Amino acid sequence: MTIPSVTAPAPAPVDASPNPWLRRILLANVVLEVGIVVTGGLVRLTGSGLGCPTWPECVPGSFTPVAHQPQGIHKYIEYGNRTLTGVVGIAALLVIVAVWLWAPGRRGWRPGRPALFRLAFLPMLGVVAQAVLGGITVLTGLNPATVAAHFLLSMVIVAISTLLLVRAGEGDAAPTPVVRREVGLLARVTVALGAVVLALGTVVTGSGPHSGDAAHPTRFGFDPRSVSWLHADAVMLFTGLVVAMVVAVRLVDAPVRPRRAWAWVLVVTLAQGVVGYLQYFTGLPEAVVALHMLGASLLVVTLTRGLLSLRTR
């Protein structure tokens, strides 16, 4: 009599697709990081930067505004921005938890995709650094150098948050370029010049009327018109490089993803140029300046996605 062989059941396949809640939380983190840039700009535009004149307390002896403060409405605007920082911190913490829980491949307490899990800590570290730098900014009386650093650090956090969102939809294999080496080099030069444009933008703001303190404005001391022209020249060069990238990814027959990504970079760049000239020729109205700050954040998002679109994992 033949005894039938018993075959062990095949192991269930591991689902490699990320949980949809992971993407939602990472996207919410990007939105909040961009949002706090705009609200921080509103603090500056309304002259509320010292609405809470000390840190970490709002006034000595109280973490919240008190009725007898001489700062008036400014204290509530500044305190509201500080409160939003806490919301952003919670979102950054949720990023860590979400990647640990829902990144494919988790085994018990061991997170799936360790590289992505390590990257998930960066937004939280950025929020902590922002809180410290924000305190230094208040304690130095809104020194334009610390205000500029505060904004530029926000741009770094926005870029990292965008990187996390993109990486969550990719694998962990070594990146493989999808375009020629020369196109990748042009993209890196474009991104580097974009960083210079952002830095020059902080110098323009730090030389103009919106210091963040309505009573005692602190400025860099540069001629606002001269630094605005320098910033505009850098923007024009940057725009030319973006146009070159849009043409390049089409000439080398790149996949759809980089074509779309760099088309969005061009759209945001042109919109930023229009808003920039509008605010210059209309005397820097607060609403237009706030729109320009939103555009700067969106430019960082699109540039990050554009650079990452040139390789696959």
Quickly list its features.
2 domains, oxidoreductase, 66% helix, mainly alpha, two-stranded antiparallel sheet, COX15/CtaA_fam, 313 residues
Task: Provide a concise account of the structure shown.
The chain contains nine helices and two strands; from the N terminus they run H-H-H-H-H-E-H-H-H-H-E. With 313 residues, it is mainly α.
Strand content: under 5%
Count structural domains. Answer: 2
List the helices and strands in order.
HHHHHEHHHHE
Largest sheet: 2 strands, antiparallel
Instruction: Give the low-confidence spans.
Output: 1-16
Q: Determine the structural class based on helices, strands and strand pairing.
A: mainly alpha
Apparent shape: flat
Report the radius of gyration as a whole number of Å.
Answer: 23 Å
Fraction in helix:
55-70%
Task: Calculate the mean pLDDT score and round it.
Answer: 85
Major β-sheet strand ordering: 1-2
How many extended strands? 2
Compute the number of helices: 9
End-to-end Cα distance, whole Å, is 54 Å
Give structural notes.
With 313 residues, the protein is mainly α. 66% of the residues lie in helices and 1% in strands. The protein has helices spanning 20-45, 73-102, 114-119, 122-139, 144-167, 181-205, 224-251, 256-281, 286-308; strands at residues 176-177, 311-312. A two-stranded antiparallel sheet has the order 1-2. The longest helix is centred in the N-terminal third of the chain and has 30 residues, at 73-102.
